[in-house]
Amino acid sequence: MHSNTADAKGIENRITAEEVNNLQRLCKKVLEPLRAHFGKPIHINSGFRCKEVNAAVHGAPRSYHLQGRAADIPWNKQYFDYIKNNLPHVELINEGGWIHVAV
Ligand SMILES: [Zn+2]
User: Fold this and answer.
1) Checking DSSP bridges between strand 70-74 and strand 98-102, what pairing results, if any?
2) Other beta carbons within 10 Å of 42
3) How many angstroms separate the alpha carbon of residue 39 from the centre of ligand 1?
4) Are 34 and 87 in contact (CB under 8 A)?
5) CB distance 83 to 35 below 8 Å
6) Which of 69, 77, 80, 89 has the least CB density, counted as fewest CB within 10 Å?
7) What is the pLDDT of residues 60-88, one digit of tens each?
8) How many A from CA of 28 to the centre of ligand 1?
């Protein structure tokens, strides 16, 4: 799976079939409905991270990114509120410059 951090550090961001399923679920439940509602493409800063990539970006050791269940998207209050009020999520965090959402 593509990762700028992995490329820069020579890490293979290896993903399993189960993690791909989780990413598809994340797209279906959150990212695609969000894109459809606002009618604009959504930039994904970070999605799946293998252990090495997660460590390299100082991600939480049990981060949902490790399972392909989380995405980081650029901060947008309308997106944040829409997810909060309309879409399923187990985590929704205002990280300052971006939104972290997990399902
Ligand atoms: Zn995140």
Assistant:
1) antiparallel
2) 15
3) 23
4) yes
5) no
6) 77
7) 999 999 999 999 999 999 999 999 999 99
8) 18
